[in-house]
Structure formats: structure tokens, C-alpha cells
Amino acid sequence: MSSLEFHIGQRVTAKVRTGVYIGEIVERYDPRLVVQVLAVVKHPEQGDLHHPYNPDVPMFHERRALAYSEKTTVLPRDVEHYEGDIPDYKESLLHAAQQELEKLDKLNRWTAKSMENMKALMESY
């Protein structure tokens, strides 16, 4: 999408690195849009973005969600129109963080099961 398809005051969802936010366009800074954060849809992932799921990197990044009313620049391709109610920021942040934690727990359980299977297979090999 072109930045011309968006206007100041419009409510949008914006992908920022690995997080997703609901916000309002407050400025156009071509080719980018300046979005003010109102709620969190998806909490940013932790670790090195260039080596996902690798804990053995020189710097394992801690990524905080963008703060309420924080402004960030976003390319139009990472922005979509948003219709609907805006959830409370704090509640949306906690919900998104909980979802991310549940995703990591599921991955952790998958890893444990996979390791069990691989150990059993190695014994039979």
C-alpha cells in the first residue's frame, strides 16, 4: 500500500519488527507513516532476529513492547486499516505477553517430546 492511502487520525494496525500494535497515524514522513501506539496485538519476540530460536548467540536481545502513546515510524506495507474498539493498553499488553509466553511454553514442550523421540530412535539405530 502507498502512504497516500492512509491519512492522519486514521486507526491502523502496524507491524514493528516482530510486534504488532493498534495505533493512530499522527504524521506522514514519506515514505513512512508515524504511528502513535494505543494497544498491543502481538508482543515482540525475544532473542536475535537474524538467528531465531537460537539461544547461543553473542547477544540475546530482550525486546519490550512499545509503550502507550509511543510514536514509531512504519512503512506503509506494514500498516493495515483498523476497524473496531481499541482495547485498554495495559490489558492488551498483558494479554499479548501471555500469548507469547504460551507460544514459548508450547515450543518448549514440543522440544522436550522431540528430544525423547530422537533419543529413542538413536537407541534403535
Description:
The chain is of the alpha+beta class. It has 1 helix and 5 strands, in the order E-E-E-E-E-H. The chain starts with 10 loop residues before the first strand and ends with a helix.
What fraction, in percent, of the residue positions are helical?
25-40%
Q: Which fold name fills CATH's third level, the topology?
A: SH3 type barrels
Shape: elongated
Just give the CATH class: Mainly Beta
Please identify, by name, the CATH architecture.
Answer: Roll
Identify the CATH homologous superfamily: Kinase associated protein B domain
Number of domains: 1
Order of helices and strands: EEEEEH
Question: Could you describe the largest sheet, including whether it forms a barrel?
Answer: 5 strands, antiparallel
Can you count the helices?
Answer: 1
What's the β-strand tally?
5
Could you give the topology of this structure?
Elements: E1 11-16, E2 19-29, E3 32-42, E4 71-74, E5 79-81, H1 89-124
Antiparallel strand pairs: 1-2, 1-5, 2-3, 3-4
